[in-house]
Design brief:
It catalyses: L-glutamine + H2O = L-glutamate + NH4(+); hydrogencarbonate + L-glutamine + 2 ATP + H2O = carbamoyl phosphate + L-glutamate + 2 ADP + phosphate + 2 H(+). Keywords: Amino-acid biosynthesis, Arginine biosynthesis, ATP-binding, Glutamine amidotransferase, Ligase, Nucleotide-binding, Pyrimidine biosynthesis. The protein has 442 residues and is α/β, with parallel strands linked by helices. It folds into 3 domains: 5-56, 434 Repressor (Amino-terminal Domain) (Orthogonal Bundle), CATH 1.10.260; 72-219, 3-Layer(bba) Sandwich (Glucose Oxidase, domain 1); 229-440, Rossmann fold (3-Layer(aba) Sandwich), CATH 3.40.50. It has 14 helices and 20 strands. It has helices spanning 5-11, 15-22, 26-35, 43-50, 107-111, 166-173, 183-193, 210-219, 229-232, 269-277, 291-295, 311-327, 337-345, 432-440, and strands at 72-76, 81-88, 91-92, 96-101, 119-123, 147-149, 176-179, 197-202, 238-240, 245-246, 250-251, 258-264, 280-286, 301-304, 332-335, 349-366, 372-384, 393-398, 404-409, 414-417. The longest helix has 17 residues, at 311-327. The N and C termini lie far apart (68 Å).
Length: 442
């Protein structure tokens, strides 16, 4: 039985003590009383201070009546409910961080990007699903996102390459979706308040326990401190041979010369294709590979892939391996999570962004050339430039918020970028970076 606000404040020792123990202002305590509930962002501190279980905390009333025509619900940790029409697989997602993606195309590549593990994706573009799905556009063998939120109901596919529609494909992948949501309102909420925890429910029987769904979302710890790379990585080394795709010829079969070991923290297939098309014989190894595991392949260079989760958590086993490779003066190229891990191995630190960068239209400035590139991005953490030691050069910055987008250390023959030069989806402005890496291997 939830405790009352008055009893909770008394349990904490009064308004002033409650504010001190939970790290909020006295004004926030007054707002608790006025609202008759406590926002979910304060729950962990209250549970720690009082020992109360989450189900006993005062919470906002949760709407219980299902609106006519609604078959799915997106439930946030604070009890907010966004109703809609379900599609894809029946069931309820595991709790996840709710984010938004501004890309206008490439939803299949986005959904299969392992970097979206632990997240429910809201697309700001309203018409998702109109090009269907096919086997060639998957960036991994499965969908790693935990759910999909869109404005309009997916329509029948209208692209000649489609072999199925989005609804059927998501059912096959076991992922629920919800349509009919006011994605503008949802995006503004994420933009202004940060990414909340959420659960997406599309029950086959049409019954919702909204209080339980909100409690499940609120109980989730979030991405901070979470190592997801180990969950999405391969488990055994393997060789990748296929090249990039073109409209005229399909997937290329390039000639390869230099051996590159790609550490799989959640690697997209188009990264491996881009390395192969640049002339690399690509050996993929698991995220937890040691320096000896990597070096036994006698690589001319090492690539650090993208991936999900908190880089500080993955760094516990990744950084010693990266430092071991750097000690041997082997060139290293990293992207996304690989960029963050390389920065950590060089002595830098990372931090959680309020809302992250996700989309195929993100402007980045190259500080070396002065050029601006439009890039594809998907990340919720960033490198703290102020933490970088002497000898590590900042090479790229975001023109959205000034956050770090690239580093280099010439003395150690390493460089990395925060964005995705392989695109898929997105522009190919930055594909030259693969050639830059190969040129270092000589």
């Amino acid at each position: 039985m939830p405790i009352s606000i008055a009893d909770l404040i008394e349990l904490l020792g009064g308004p002033e003590a409650a504010a001190t123990l939970t790290g909020v202002s006295p004004d926030a305590i007054r707002k608790w009383r006025a609202a008759g509930a406590i926002p979910s962002r304060h729950w962990p501190a209250i549970m720690s201070a009082t020992g109360l279980p989450m189900e006993d905390l005062p919470r906002p009333p949760v709407e219980s009546d299902t609106p006519p025509g609604a078959t799915a619900a997106l439930v946030l940790a604070d009890g907010s409910v966004f109703w809609g029409r379900g599609f894809g697989a029946h069931g309820t997602s595991t709790p996840a961080e709710l984010c938004f993606n501004t890309g206008m195309t490439g939803y299949q590549e986005t959904l299969t990007d392992p970097s979206y593990a632990g997240q429910i994706i809201t697309f700001t573009f309203p018409h998702i699903g109109n090009t269907g799905a096919n086997e060639e556009d998957c960036e991994a063998a499965q969908v790693f996102a935990r759910g999909l939120v869109v404005k309009e109901d997916p329509t029948a596919p209208s692209n000649y390459r489609a072999t199925t529609d989005l609804d059927v494909w998501l059912r096959r992948m076991g992922v629920p979706g919800i349509a009919g949501v006011d994605t503008r309102a949802l995006t503004l909420r994420i933009r202004d308040l940060g990414a909340p925890s959420a659960v997406l429910s599309f029950p086959a029987d049409g019954k919702f326990d909204l209080a339980a769904l909100a409690a499940t979302a609120a109980a989730w710890s979030g991405l901070n401190g979470l190592d997801l790379a180990a969950e999405v990585s391969c488990t055994q080394p393997y060789e990748w041979t296929g090249g990039t795709w073109s409209w005229e010829h399909g997937f290329a079969t390039p000639e390869t010369r230099k051996t590159v070991v790609a550490v799989d923290y959640g690697a997209k297939r188009n990264i491996l294709r881009s390395l192969a098309s640049a002339g690399c014989k690509v050996i993929v190894v698991p995220a937890n590979a040691s320096a000896n595991d990597i070096l036994q392949h006698n690589p001319a260079g090492v690539f650090l892939s993208n991936g999900p989760g908190d880089p500080a958590a993955t760094a516990r086993y990744a950084v010693p391996a990266i430092q071991g490779v750097m000690y041997m003066k082997i060139p290293i190229f990293g992207i996304c999570l690989g960029h963050q891990l390389l920065a950590t191995a060089l002595g830098g630190k990372t931090y959680k962004l309020e809302r992250g960068h996700r989309g195929a239209n993100q402007p980045v400035k190259d500080l070396v050339t002065g050029k601006v590139e439009i890039t594809s991005q998907n990340h919720g953490f960033a490198v703290d430039e102020k933490s970088l030691p002497e000898g590590v050069e900042v090479t790229h910055v975001s023109l959205f918020d000034g956050s770090n987008e690239g580093i280099a250390c010439k003395a150690k023959k390493v460089f990395s970028v925060q964005y995705h030069p392989e695109a898929s989806p997105g522009p190919s402005d930055s594909s030259y970076l693969f050639k830059r890496f190969v040129d270092m291997l000589a």
